[in-house]
Amino acid sequence: MVSSSAFETTLNLPSLDLSKPLQPSSLSSLSEACHQWGFFNIINHGISKDLFENIKSFSNQLFDLPSEAKLKLGPSSSIKTYTPQFIASPYFESFRVSGPDFHSSAQDSVDVVFDNNNNNRHEFGEILEEYGKKMTELAKKIMKIVLMVLGDGFDTRFYDLDFKNCHGYLRINRYSPPTNLDDKKAIEGLGMHTDMSCITIVYQDEIGGLQVKSKQEGIRWMDIAPSEGTLVVNIGDLLQAWSNDKLISSEHRVVLKQPENRLSIAFFWCFEDEKVILAPNEVAGNEEMRLYKPFVCLDYLKFRESNEEGKFEKVGFTVKDFVAHNTKIELCTKVHPVTQ
Ligand SMILES: O=C(O)CCC(=O)C(=O)O
Ligand SMILES: [Fe+2]
């Protein structure tokens, strides 16, 4: 069971309208949201309701398969695109599709689990290719806007320098709460974590349940309410480190409040593995103010994956723990280890 609803309230996030030129007022509310919450909404993003509905219906066909079939894609298989229940939580399972060739990534998995007579099986690759491509374009656009939040002209100055080799992958998540769940007893569908990305673009269905941890006294968790046509963007650990903590990678989780299956699609936009992450002086302020010593992206990903606590599935560790850990083993990534 999770904390009582008395400590939860809905967060009013700004919505960035992608169909309009960016206004100074949107930039300032975006800047506030990125600093305070590490979350904001986007609207008019150009992705149709039909595409979400299509992905949902195909994904549910996949998740509805017997466990033996799904485990052909599980952690002990060679493909490893499926995370079964009881790894992150008893109620959470997930299916991964990697870019840049979203079509073959999705199709390779589907071909293993759907039999040849299933007429739909070719469509799965196609719709995920369409979604992956649209998300890639969206991530590039949002990344530039987020850079503008850091400073005037920072998009043109830093995008090509640091972000042009970013890549994306997506995870389709299904949450299946117990059927006897009553709404006074919310349960955790996915524990508190930060994302191992620069930014993550999240679609959550109408069930809701995404929450961000508040730094305010008295209120612990804030609901990020679902709204049709709205996607949620959150800042990940990699961008927090690159921005010298100017942008915050918020701790978030998913709670299940009603006995209904919930579906979400998270698109993670990440630095390339070999990238050395270093906040530019213009972003950090100056050399002395830089909080992180340069580190290789893959070392951080390995740290998260090799620590039971820090793994996406087990959740809890962040880039700050990585820094503290590296400091201890004298690789020293952060100049002043953060012990929060
Ligand atoms: O299911 C959601 O709404 C969010 C999932 C999430 O935080 C993640 O996959 O990292
Ligand atoms: Fe997340």
What are the SSEs and their pairings?
Layout lengths: L7 E3 L4 E3 L6 H13 L2 E5 L5 H15 L3 H4 L11 E2 L8 E7 L3 H12 L7 H30 L3 H10 L3 E9 L11 E7 L5 E6 L5 E4 L7 E3 L7 E5 L1 H6 L9 E5 L5 E9 L5 E2 L3 H4 L10 E2 H10 L12 H10 L12
Parallel strand pairs: 1-10, 2-3
Antiparallel strand pairs: 3-11, 4-5, 5-6, 6-13, 7-12, 8-11, 8-13, 9-10, 9-12, 14-15
Helix pairs in contact: 1-5, 2-5, 4-5, 5-6
The structure holds 2-oxoglutaric acid (AKG) and fe (ii) ion.
Descriptors:
340 residues; alpha+beta; 8-stranded mixed beta sheet; 5-stranded mixed beta sheet; 10 helices; 15 strands; 21% strand; globular; disordered C terminus; binds 2-oxoglutaric acid; binds fe (ii) ion
Classify the helix fraction into a percent range: 25-40%
Q: How would you describe the shape?
A: globular
Instruction: Compute the number of helices.
Output: 10
Largest sheet: 8 strands, mixed
Order of helices and strands: EEHEHHEEHHHEEEEEEHEEEHEHH
Structural class: alpha+beta
Q: List ligands, each type once.
A: 2-oxoglutaric acid, fe (ii) ion
* Uncertain ranges: 309-316, 327-340
Distance between the termini: 25 Å
* Beta-strand percent range: 15-25%
The beta-strand count equals 15
Question: For the residues shown, what is the average pLDDT?
Answer: 87
Q: Biggest sheet: strands side by side, in what order?
A: 2-3-11-8-13-6-5-4
Task: Please state the CA-atom Rg, rounded to the nearest Å.
Answer: 20 Å
